[in-house]
Amino acid sequence: MPQYKLTYFDLRGWAEPARQLFHLSHTPYDDIRIPMADTEGKWEKMRDKTPFGQLPVLNVDGFDIPQSAAICRYLAKKFGYAGKTPEEEAWADAVVDQFKDFSVAFKTLLFATRAGKPEEEILKIRYEIFNPARDVYFILLNRILKKSKSGYLVGDGLTWADLVIADNLHSLEKLRAIDDDDEGHQNLKKYKEKIYGTPDLEDHIATRMDTEV
Amino acid sequence: MPQYKLTYFDLRGWAEPARQLFHLSHTPYDDIRIPMADTEGKWEKMRDKTPFGQLPVLNVDGFDIPQSAAICRYLAKKFGYAGKTPEEEAWADAVVDQFKDFSVAFKTLLFATRAGKPEEEILKIRYEIFNPARDVYFILLNRILKKSKSGYLVGDGLTWADLVIADNLHSLEKLRAIDDDDEGHQNLKKYKEKIYGTPDLEDHIATRMDTEV
Q1: Which of A13, A154, B40, B115 is the most buried (most CB within 10 A)?
Q2: ipTM greater than 0.90
Q3: How do residues A2-56 score in pLDDT, each as one tens digit?
Q4: The GST N-terminal domain covers which part of the protein (chains A, B) (predicted)?
Q5: Does domain B86-196 have CATH number 1.20.1050.10?
């Protein structure tokens, strides 16, 4: 079996679906985490050695793979969570890219909040940028799930697209971006709970460090 | 052979690498183009029938695949341009996702220009948002190409990542975002010319409608 090393910050973020793929497939891996309070400057020392100056990076027997979706797709194919046909694989890819398009707005809100921008500016971003993008994205997710007989986003079983989308929904809940009185939002919350209730995932989710994102 | 229908606007844009994959593999397909001056409102009539309310969409024997990268990856796998190993496939994916990250800044500049924003605002976007993102992205591309023995971005042959990156470099040239007196920029221009000079592609490139993007 190859030696896997996954390096990321001490967050769920863009590495969490990859961690979940390791857990689902009972594959040992090194879960290397740079502390958010990086007092030793570990990240600065390491940055130039990463392929794109970014994390996560997956190292497979010495070979580095950057970019979160590329990492997840690679592992999903190895472990059987990429989709059962070329068409299912393409749909898993498409759903993840649709999420990535939405995540531009998500990051704009997140970074403004983290940067401690004035409340007024954050609210403006929330209502003018984030909410419209989220609403379009949620409608698409609900439409896919409504047509799905399995309750999964693609085909009749769990794919890496479910892991990516469910974990982001978890972040959206934490950021109070899922409304209690909106049926579409609540459907997505139930969907997230279904994915989080996957056997072989529950233990991991119960014991992981549950950061804000 | 499946029946392929690729629907997009009358632009190169996010559909062009898919069109090139059809040409490279000598695969017949319907190249359906919605005119940019859409006087008959074709797009509005069609929008709700597309999976994500967006184009391009690839239809394969009646089955719709949305999202440009998902479409290209699907075709690249079918036609032998996805990479020769799982690790090469992951690197092609990673390079395309790195381009997509950069393209957020590219779109910001493009849409501001198209919307006819005041010159001062466009210059601000160009110098504060677009140029810094482009510079980081160009350094990464040059670093990959410097290490490459083949002159391609991944492995020893052409992949869909080359098609995506080269066609965007062509757009950047048209938008005067490639400097004549910068060595790194000129290296990328030469790389683009190499990809554009691929046999089975030259004919297509010489006869296609060469829109701004």
Answers
A1: A154
A2: yes
A3: 999 999 999 999 999 999 999 999 999 999 999 988 889 999 999 999 999 999 9
A4: 2-83
A5: yes
